[in-house]
Amino acid sequence: MTSPPPASTRPAAPPQGSDRPPTADGARAGTPQLPRPVVEELDHLARIRRNLAENPEGPGASEVAVVEEILSIQRDLPAARNDDKPALFQQLEHLQARLDQVRAGRPTEQVDPESPYFGHLGLLEDGRRRDIFIGRATRLGEGLRIVDWRNAPISQMFYRYEEGDDFEEEMAGRERVGRVVARRTVHIQAGELQRVGSAAGTWLREEEGWRELARSSTHLAGGEGTALRAGRAADGQAGSHLGSGQRHRADKHLPDIAALIDPDQFALITGQDSGVVVLRGSAGSGKTTVALHRIAYLTYDDPRRFAPERILVVVWGRAMRDYVGHVLPALGVDGVRVTTWDSWSKKQVRRHFGAILPTVWADDTPEPVVRIKLHPAVSELLARHIRATPGPARPDQVLEDWASVLTDGPAIARAMGDAISASALDKAVHWITEQSNALLAHAAGDSDADARLDAEDAALLLRAWQLRIGPLSHKGRTLRNSHLVLDEVQDFSPVEVQVLLDTTDEKRCVTLAGDVRQHISKEAGFSSWSEFLDRIGVPSQALATLQVSYRSTHEITSFALQVLHDDDEPTPRTTRSGPPVELFQFSDHGACVAFLAEELRRLILAEPLANVALLTPDPDLSLTYFEGLQRAEVEGVRLVEEQAFAFAPGIDVVEASEVKGLEFDYVVVVDASARWWPDSPHHRRLMHVAATRAVHQLWLTCVGTPSSILPRAQRGR
Q1: What are the residues facing 653 on neighbouring strands?
Q2: Are strands 209-212 and 8-9 parallel, antiparallel or unpaired?
Q3: CA nearest 45: which of 96, 117, 99?
Q4: What is the pLDDT of residue 70?
Q5: How far apart are CA 644 and CA 388, in angstroms?
Q6: Residue ranges of the alpha helices (H) in 141-280?
Q7: Among 98, 115, 525, 648, which is least packed by CB within 10 angstroms?
Q8: Cα-Cα end-to-end distance for the chain
């Protein structure tokens, strides 16, 4: 775990196993004084580990046994002395937590002595102090009060309250009133205390002793509204998005960037009005900015030719579609069609093939089938087949062309070479053969045929239509776009791009924007700019490189480039510096939720217009953190599904694979561990994408072993 320079450095402490007891003032005899929170947590850990060792945990109690204990205490309550009742109520509460755990249908987890808990809550009630420890499992009795962060009702207090807060809660039918006198997060590894975080400060154990971290290293701060979409286009004044001149607005859609365009960007925006322009640039270099401002310029310069309704913008996902759909009107351009490839292509298939094809699209396509249907060599096979095979210009012939090529295993094997194994090819061809038989039967009028299309079929069918029948059309009129914009082109297959290019008019005014480093669609077929441009028939002279990355700080950009390891793309220049990239390690997700909840509450209170992204590797983990932050009563938390971003201040919890093209003031990459981020080219590029969504500050968290794709500076020892 890394950290920035400390606010102060504590003298070396003896090893945690030292036999010398703490002195009354909190230091061990013969050593300099340690911070009281550290001393107290060392003592708590020693006591709890000793109790766990002396009382090894046996099999979990059955539901019947727990219920019998509860009933026994309830029978004893009426006759109990008043002084004894608080303890009995407390025991009832603990037993209820265990009963809830048993009834959840899973075995009771056992406390790990090597990492028994991650949180400590000290409560003062009626003059009596109770210390509860928050972990991944519940263990009560034998001097132990460890509760599961997910289930025990009292654990929710750990997430809701800060140290010094008064509380009033109803638990187990009893009103509880008191004060939180201690709330600390701890990191325990291999039975040793490594980190203590409290209201008084945060301390990290190092070889030389305990070191207090600077406050700035454990805070997100200073980035409110730094994302460009925090202003309005009408506000265009140079530098208005920087420093104290930032216009803070709740609307995150509309970027104040018209006056910030650099000379290279301006030349591309106002340049040629025919032919293909390919914008290559790193994350935050302004590719989308140039593409959208080029639309605004063309419609202004030649409004008749470049009427908005004759311009098509195709983007990678729903989030960018929504974003672009709001930005263009702010640039004075209304009526431009903005869509995703998936939506546009499926609509064109329905329009052109009608009832000959089913309306059902498969969602369980095997990976080898996807690989075949998107491979550039297969689309070239299709083109050669149509050129060499006479046939009528009819939809049923297009379907025959499609089926003939995709079921020819030997031809596909020769075309794809080492890109697919013999066994994977055999399985894929078998799948496609069954699929094509069902589709041909459906086309012949068999309504009982179980016919389904794969999403990857849309491009092949439309391309076959263009080659066999002619240009795509609508209501008898040929589709002829005066200008086409395709964003994130590196994640489109060549055949998809070819279909779109052939919807432009004779001047072929096209803007393609992309970044090899952000290529995350595994089967799209993108290998290099030169090969890609050659396959789609675009000269390499059309490639323009944007050299400056404006979005992220030097620290974030440097981290993101190091993640890529072997990368031969041009190194972008950056324009500003910011806080260091930090990695925070935890023993459990509950500990991470507690840490983030505390920090995010503080951030939202201090910077109410900040937008934060918590980027996870998995939908289930997204749900875990969303629910955990909700339990901790963090305001403004949103679980983003199907890229339905609000583009507003608050905290978006979403998978890292869903945020390409977007930006946020703050980004936290959740659980950058070896489990979720193995060392593969895909995961390196995905981490690069996740990191470069951050404008001002980037944090990473980790439960377990940090991923080896992280730079050594973040992985630490």
Answers
A1: 614, 639
A2: antiparallel
A3: 117
A4: 81
A5: 46
A6: 155-160, 263-269
A7: 648
A8: 7
Supply angle C-alpha 270, 275, 281, rounded to 5.
65
Contacts of residue 373, defined as CB under 8 A and 6 or more positions apart, other chains included, come to 406, 454, 456, 457, 459, 460
DSSP helix/strand/coil, 639 = strand
Query: What's the CA gap between 709 and 681, in Å, rounded?
Result: 10
**Backbone φ and ψ of 605, nearest 5°:** -70, -40
- Whether residue 375 contacts residue 413, with contact meaning beta carbons closer than 8 Å, is answered with no
- Residue type at 347? K
- C-alpha–C-alpha distance, residues 410 and 426, integer Å: 10
Please give the Cα distance from 181 to 198 (Å, whole number): 11
- In the numeric block, which tokens belong to residue 148? 């599961």
E strand intervals along 450-542: 473-474, 477-478, 483-486, 510-514
Query: Where do we find the tokens 């790193």?
Result: 282
Q: What does residue 613 show for φ and ψ, rounded to 5 degrees?
A: -115, 125
Q: Which of 443, 412, 444, 439 is nearest to 425 (CA)?
A: 412
Q: What is the model's pLDDT at position 522?
A: 56
Half-sphere exposure of 35 (CA within 13 A, CB side): 22
**Helices (H), ranges, 333-421:** 341-353, 367-374, 376-388, 395-406, 409-416
- pLDDT for 661 equals 85
Within the chain, how many helices (H) and strands (E) appear? 21, 26
Across the chain, which has 717 residues, the per-10-residue mean pLDDT values are: 36 38 40 83 95 76 69 81 78 74 59 91 92 88 85 79 89 84 90 90 88 77 66 30 35 40 78 87 86 90 93 92 88 92 96 93 91 92 96 95 96 92 94 94 88 94 97 93 93 92 94 82 66 83 83 92 79 88 90 92 92 96 95 94 90 94 94 93 91 94 93 70
Q: In what order do the strands lie in the sheet with 276-281?
A: 337-340, 311-315, 483-486, 510-514, 276-281, 543-546
Write out 455-466 in H/E/C secondary structure: CCHHHHHHHHHH
Scanning the structure block, which residue is given the tokens 């993640």?
563
Q: Where are the alpha helices (DSSP H) in 104-235?
A: 155-160
Q: In the prediction, which pLDDT does 440 show?
A: 94
Q: Which residues contact 345 (CB under 8 A, 6 or more apart)?
A: 458, 459, 462, 496, 499
Question: Whose CA is closest to 572, among 202, 264, 284, 188?
Answer: 284
